[in-house]
Write a structure and sequence with these properties.
The structure holds two protein chains of two kinds.
Chain A lengths: L1 H34 L6 H23 L12 H31 L7 H23 L4 E2 L19 H23 L1 H11 L1 H6 L4 H26 L2 E2 L5 H14 L4 H20 L6 H15 L14
Antiparallel strand pairs in A: 1-2
Chain B lengths: L1 H30 L2 E7 L6 H20 L8 E7 L6 H13 L3 E4 L3 H13 L4 E3 L14 E3 L4 H14 L5 E7 L3 H16 L3 E8 L7 H10 L3 E3 L4 H13 L6 E3 L6 H7 L7 E4 L8 H14 L5 H20 L4 H9 L4 E3 L2 E5 L5 E2 L2 E7 L2 E8 L2
The chains are: A mainly alpha, B alpha/beta.
Chain lengths: 316, 382
């Protein structure tokens, strides 16, 4: 029984970590879908999402009484969630705008150039965002304000699930459903899918490719910002380089699921999160970061298209 | 013929200017300043430590330059940042050796970074003094490598003694940051002293710098019911560990080392930081007039209280320049001999003597976090 509880416990930890990777991986995969390039600055959008929350929260602190509640009660739950939700939505909006801006300034001028140019530019943008944040806001870790009270959820016996972990998992599910709706049921979603199949045909049929690409960046950046806020609610220490490793791991998750494939990115994120937790649980915490790259090597060797990816023939 | 002359002329002129520029440079560098290279972690995970350290060192250099420098020349502190990253310190040391041609090196901040740079300094016969690397292996690298702080075995002994005597703890867990030589070295010392006295280390858990989720390890801590948890790591992770431990309902005190000494720890951990203890090199609350004078000057200049790193690097910079003064020259061998001969240097972190192993012997303090403020509980002399 104890073993079962422990397994279940680590699974919960793994799923909450994996949800974060999944949210970031979606941005990589969607941008790859429409532009066929890896936006290496995506991890830094996740960092900026956390910083947006860090800067926004004090402005709303007196309205929503951030940090004043120690536990969730039936009376305050809705109040707390609306406060945290507002910060999250605002931060998502800011990062969506930033994502569009970055695409407009840094990537669009290079669209007709070799793909390597824009890839290198993405690395440059990543370094720029990290360093401008260090310069403007300081390089030292900052304490993220408490948006929701973090405590163990009562009534689960030996299983400890924290309110913050539950918030991550539920928010991720909601965001995934919303994303599915946008991509599958709306006109702009249809345009995104069309663009990923064939950009030229898509524009011949009257779709404004620039708008669709901007929208894709906005969507991906908003999801990354949500991930940044969620992770900071769970471990409230943020720094300008926090996007580095999660960004790269989410990239691995996107490749694992099949780059360009949206359900694949979510699945890949969960797998990487659970694997990472297992590696720590069996006593090899120093391999925590290594495991993602080991997965990358294995997947590139044996199934380069990823779990859900399709083989794409080069058209002549 | 005339045409040839003209085309030759600018070349000659260039050559002439080149030679005179070289001459001017040589004259200036021989008359100019005494260059000391300082390498620390100004950005990245350990930046609050790094910024304090350089502020402390700069204050010392300014004070020394205000009274005429050393050997009649002002000191120029060349500050480089390793970004808290592995690999950078070695590159910086190469720059100090080949490009800046410094007289001595102050740094690095951590044991890991110092051990990366020290072999290069040793090979180039360049005296290196680290004011804050406490891992015992650092000064074993060679006879040009010195330190002006106490070593991990002393800290480990302080932590273990404190847990045994004051906290009456008999069962402990150690959590080690396996990426930091500092944490690994301190863990060995704690284990040695704690288990010597008949007490028991229930288990040794590990984590890595940069992690932010420690619940997997803390679940194991909760199952084991220890009376104390030793946490010899740095503040970035320690803060999150304290926070997550309290969230999981772990109530026993955590005991850390000087790696905890940063305001960030309390800012991140909040109430979860209260009731925990750590050892340190220095406390700004020390009533000693010499310490209070330093605290006041530092505060006037930087609008913040000096932490241990600021004090250690202030002492380190002064000790190093004083050694250059005593050496009577910038000859590396003479500076090395002068450093080795340091006895009873009167620093703000206590009296420093350099022993035969090029380590410093000096006192330490134990602090408790009460309502977010560190309070001195005990002073310990070796």
């Amino acid at each position: 029984m104890d073993k079962l509880i422990e397994m279940l416990q680590q699974l919960v930890n793994g799923v909450s970590l994996g949800s974060i990777y999944a949210l970031i991986a979606l941005g990589y995969t969607m941008v790859y879908g429409v532009l066929r390039f890896i936006n290496f600055a995506h991890g830094d959008i996740y960092m900026l999402g956390a910083y947006a929350g860090f800067l926004l929260a004090p402005l709303f602190a007196h309205i929503f009484k951030f940090g004043e509640f120690d536990t969730f009660t039936p009376q305050n739950t809705l109040f707390i969630l609306s406060g945290a939700g507002l910060i999250m939505i605002l931060s998502m909006a800011i990062c969506a705008a930033l994502g569009v801006l970055i695409e407009r300034i840094a990537y669009r001028p290079l669209r007709e150039r070799p793909r390597l140019n824009v890839l290198i530019t993405a690395i440059g943008v990543s370094l720029f965002l990290q360093n401008i944040t260090q310069y403007r806001l300081g390089a030292d870790p900052k304490a993220f304000p408490q948006l929701i009270p973090v405590h163990v959820i009562e009534g689960l016996g030996n299983l400890t699930i924290l309110t913050s972990q539950l918030a991550i998992i539920i928010s991720t599910i909601i965001l995934l459903i919303l994303l599915h709706f946008v991509v599958m049921k709306t006109k702009i979603g249809l345009a995104m899918r069309a663009l990923s199949l064939n950009p030229t045909a898509c524009s011949i049929m009257g779709v404004n490719n620039d708008v669709v690409i901007s929208f894709t960046f906005a969507l991906g950046s908003a999801l990354a910002a949500a991930a940044g806020i969620l992770v900071s609610m769970d471990s409230p220490s943020i720094n300008p380089l926090m996007g580095n490793l999660p960004g790269i791991k989410a990239f691995v998750a996107a490749v694992l699921g099949g780059i360009g494939n949206i359900p694949g990115a979510a699945l890949g994120g969960l797998i990487i999160g659970i694997l990472e937790t297992l590696v720590v649980a069996i006593g090899f915490p120093q391999w925590r970061d290594g495991i993602a790259f080991a997965v990358l090597i294995v997947i590139l060797l044996f199934k380069p298209t990823g779990i859900l990816g399709r083989v794409e023939r080069e058209k002549v | 013929m005339v045409k040839g002359w003209r085309s030759l002329n600018p070349g000659l002129m260039h050559l002439f200017f080149g030679i005179s520029a070289c001459l001017a440079w040589t004259i200036q560098s021989s008359l100019g300043e005494i260059k000391i290279g300082a390498v620390s972690c100004l950005t990245g995970a350990l930046s609050t430590f790094g910024v304090s350290s350089i502020q402390g060192a700069k204050l010392a250099v300014e004070e020394i330059n205000a009274v005429g420098g050393t050997l009649g020349q002002p000191i120029q502190l060349i500050v480089e940042d390793n970004g808290s990253k592995a690999g950078e310190t070695a590159t910086i040391l190469r720059k100090f050796i080949s490009q800046d041609k410094v007289v001595a090196v102050l740094g690095g901040l951590t044991s890991s970074s110092t051990m990366e740079g020290a072999p290069l300094a040793q090979a180039a016969k360049l005296p290196l003094l680290t004011p804050s690397a406490t891992n015992i292996a650092v000064t074993k690298i060679g006879n040009y490598i010195f330190r002006s702080c106490f070593i991990d075995p002393f800290t480990g002994q302080m932590m273990a003694r404190f847990a045994l005597d004051r906290l009456q703890a008999k069962q402990a867990i150690v959590m080690t940051d396996v990426k930091q030589d500092y944490s690994v070295g301190l863990t060995d010392a704690i284990r040695l002293y704690f288990s010597q006295s008949g007490a028991k280390i229930l288990s040794a858990l590990s984590y890595s710098s940069g992690d932010s989720d420690f619940r997997t390890q803390l679940t194991a801590v909760r199952m084991a019911h220890p009376e104390v948890v030793f946490l010899p790591g740095y503040y970035t992770e320690a803060a999150l560990i304290l926070l997550q431990a309290r969230q999981l309902g772990i109530r026993c005190p955590f005991v850390g080392g000087e790696g905890w000494d940063s305001p960030t720890l309390v800012q991140v951990a909040g109430k979860a930081a209260d009731g925990n203890y750590y050892t340190d090199h220095f406390s700004a609350a020390d009533p000693d007039p010499k310490v209070q004078k330093f605290v006041q000057t530092y505060r006037a200049k930087y609008a913040t209280l000096p932490d241990a790193l600021a004090a250690l690097w202030y002492d380190g910079a002064r000790l190093l320049t004083q050694a250059v003064q005593r050496a009577g020259s910038t000859d590396p061998e003479k500076v090395r001999e002068a450093l080795a001969a340091t006895r009873d240097f009167d620093g703000v972190t206590g009296r420093i003597s350099i022993d035969d192993n090029r380590n410093a012997s000096k006192p330490g303090v134990i602090l408790e976090i009460v309502n977010g403020e560190p309070k001195v509980v005990q002073q310990i002399t070796p």
